[in-house]
Amino acid sequence: MKINKEHKEKNIGRINIRKYVFLFSILGLIFPVSAWIIDAGYRGVDISTWEGIVEMHTGNLLHFFLYSTPFVLGFVAYRLSRIIGKERSLLLAESREKERIIRKNVEFASRIGKGDFAELPGETIKGDNLGRALLIMRDNLVETYEKENEQNWIAKGKEIVRDILSQNTNIEVLAYETIVSLINYIDAVQGAFYIYDEDKETLRNIATYAYNRKKYITQEYQKGQGLVGQVAFEEDYIYRKEIPEDYITISSGILGDNKPKTILIAPLISDDKIQGVIEFASLQEDMSPKTIALIRELSEIIAQTLFNLKVASRTEKLLDDSQQLTNKLEKNKDELLRNAKQMETTQEELKKSNKDLEEQFAEVEKGQKRQHALLENASEVITIYDETGIVKYVSPSVKNILGFDAQEMVGTNRFKRGESILQEAFNKLLKNPKIPRTFEYQYENKQKEKLWLETTGRNLIKNPAIGGILFNTRDITVRKIAEKAQRMSGEMQALSENSPDMIMRVASDGMFYYANPMVAEFLGITAKQIIKKNIDEVPVNKSIMNIIKEILTQVLNSGKKIETERIFDQINNEERIVQINAIPEFNDEKELETVLMVAHDITERKRIELEIEKKNKNITESINYAKRIQNAILPNTDFIKTYLPESFIFYKPRDVVSGDFPWFFEKDDHIYIAAVDCTGHGVPGALLSFIGYFILNNVVDHDNDFTASQILDSLHANVRTTLKQDTPDANARDGMDIALCKINRKNKTLEYSGAHRPLYLLSNNELKQYKGSPKA
């Protein structure tokens, strides 16, 4: 296909060359033809006859030169076409090469996206910038994948060993199962476990695998002796490929006796003290870095477990020795009492016995001091309860872990603090003494801090050295926090996947790291189409991507959470109103790493808000119109001052319209003025004020002889009639409180009547109050 295309392009080039040569040759004929016409006209020669043509040529030799013009122009056209054709061929070749490279890059990128990190067979894409970038990206992905696999492999190995350590309290069983499990896991063929004896200051072999047991089962090393002793002395691991000549061979029925090719020896260090050494050998040429990393991390965990078991074992031994010594002292005491009569004759023997006792007491005291130091610095709390739940003994480490002094706990019943899980385990241990109990629970220490504890209980009531229920407790708060964080991460993932909101995590460079399924509802694409793509690469409405880019820029510049409302143009030409919360996420170095965007559809809420706003506007306009009507009927203050110059009205409604109103009426020589308070506020009160206003006007306008009291009686009756309160089944009690004055300007007299409203009269610097009655 490629050859046909090139052949076709060459044919097109040849056709173009012939076409241009022909055209330029035709163009060259114009010059001799024009010369014929011009010369014939100028000289008056008849070129239609042979004699005229000959005469024209003999008279002007220029015609012979012009006959070469078509050939010259044809040759020029030929040369130019060949030059242009070569340049065009070079451009086409370069274009085809770039197209080939682009196809290879696309194919390579596609394979990377599918998880195939191998380079294309027989091809290289290193010759262009994009190819080099794809190779770098491939190498980075491979490195990340390998690191994740290495971390998962190490974590799995640690979990296997942790299970063994938590299930065994016998050091030799624990050592053997640990060695076997690790040999199987790291693909080694031989291993040994050495424990350090502090008293003898030696490393003793307590577990081996694939060794000649008859020869090496009782191995012991001093610090600095051999590779094992060297590791213990330097407190650092040894990894060797050059195996010493005297190194132990591997015993196998299939392989016979073979010398390993690599060995790894690691110290077990806890609290800055050597607890033991583990040794592994392999037939492989190299041990992987992850194997060495796993052994180094596990060495600390195994060392801490050995330390705890040693402390527990030594505690039991010391308690047992103490009990035996006590029994011995009791026996010696009885012996001394029986031999009191022989004291004079056995004085020397008694002195010797006393000396022995002093030495024994000194040894006991030394052992107790050693025990106290071990227990005080232990990472576990050891507690002994009697059969009734009273604390007989608690190790000094309780101060560091739980915050209590040992004296505070000894002699008390700890179950009364609400530690029901301890009570339950205590009861089970009493019921089944042979079965130890291990459980986890939450505990509040003396400083009111919440801790997670892991406790293992054993029934040692029949053990004369202990004589109670023994609880070993350690703080596992850090582990619980890590487990909770992992669980919450999974729960948050589930909530995000099922959320009705669109949730996306965008990097500072615009790359999408996460998107939940709701992007299909908001953007019209699936989560797979957006993850690991840049904002400019996502195939959706550009206006939406511009909104996301704008919000991302704002968060990156401010470093703060942003909440905004935007309009998304949908594919079906509908608008969706979206509330977007953009939350910055920082790494451990306080650098803004990603932005979490949560988009919530508020289209329906906005529609309802607009409807409510529209209705509120209509209601407000109606109430404002009612206010204009109410203001129109209220008396004018300037008009009142023409009759009462020193008067004033303070009128300030609580709502737009009010049920309170001043009233003024003038007729003949009388002035009527009142302050009215109708039942209710706002619109209901305003409606009642209209009723009171017009009834007062009507009553006063029809009869001048009514007293103030009669006016209010008439008002009361008309209100009841208007509101139909005078019917037997009426239950409404709406009305108004009022203070009314009738002033006769001619006689200078004032009449007052009030319903629940008083009149204050200031006369001769004396203030008098006239109270209104419930009924005017």
Oligomer: single chain
Tell me how many strands there are: 24
Low-confidence stretches: 251-256
The 3D shape can be described as flat
Task: Report the span from N to C terminus.
Answer: 115 Å
* Radius of gyration from CA coordinates: 54 Å
Structural class of the helices, strands and pairings? alpha+beta
Q: What fraction of residues sit in β-strands?
A: 15-25%
Could you report the average pLDDT, rounded to the nearest whole number?
77
Please report the number of helical segments. Answer: 20
Instruction: Characterize the biggest β-sheet.
Output: 6 strands, antiparallel
Helix content: 40-55%
Q: Widest sheet: strand order?
A: 3-2-1-8-7-4
Tell me about this structure.
By secondary structure, the protein is α+β, with helices and mostly antiparallel strands. The chain is built from 20 helices and 24 strands. A hairpin with a 4-residue loop joins strand 14 (502-507) and strand 15 (512-515). Helix 4 (69-113) packs parallel to helix 5 (129-167) and helix 5 (129-167) runs antiparallel to helix 6 (171-186). The protein starts with a helix and ends in a 6-residue tail after the last strand. Residues 251-256 have low confidence and may be disordered.
